[in-house]
Amino acid sequence: MFAVSRAGHDAGNVYVIIREMGGDVYLADGDLKGIDNPKRKNRKHLQIIRKGASVELIGKLRNNQAVSNEEIKYTIKSRFK
After folding, report:
1. Which terminus of the chain has a lower count of CB atoms within 10 Å, N or C?
2. In the chain, where are the structural domains located?
3. Cβ neighbours of residue 58 under 8 Å, at least 6 residues apart?
4. CA atoms within 13 A on the CB side of 37
5. How much is the pTM?
6. Which long-range contacts (CB under 8 A, 24 or more apart) does 66-75 make?
């Protein structure tokens, strides 16, 4: 799924949710916050967008396969810009 930050210095930025742990989610945009260094953010500071990511990206994330930053950037760009 996608998420838009509602609070903080990154308000308005679109991210892909990489994983969830408790009340926190880990986000990547493929640019400033890559897959190897995701941003941790409280779930209540996000707006979850149910618009699905690409099937390939979802499958890779669920199966813990390698995902590149370019794939994340392309997915966000193709859906929101």
Report:
1. C
2. 1-52
3. 52
4. 3
5. 0.84
6. 67/35, 68/35, 69/28, 69/30, 69/31, 69/34, 69/35, 70/30, 71/30, 72/16, 72/28, 72/29, 72/30, 72/34, 72/35, 73/29, 73/30, 73/31, 74/30, 75/16
> What angle separates helix 55-62 from helix 69-80, to the nearest 10 degrees?
140
Tokens 């779930």 locate to 43
> Which pair of tokens denotes residue 70?
């370019």
The architecture of the domain spanning 1-52 is Roll (2.30)
* Residue type present at position 74: Y
Distance (Å, whole) CA 52 – CA 47: 14
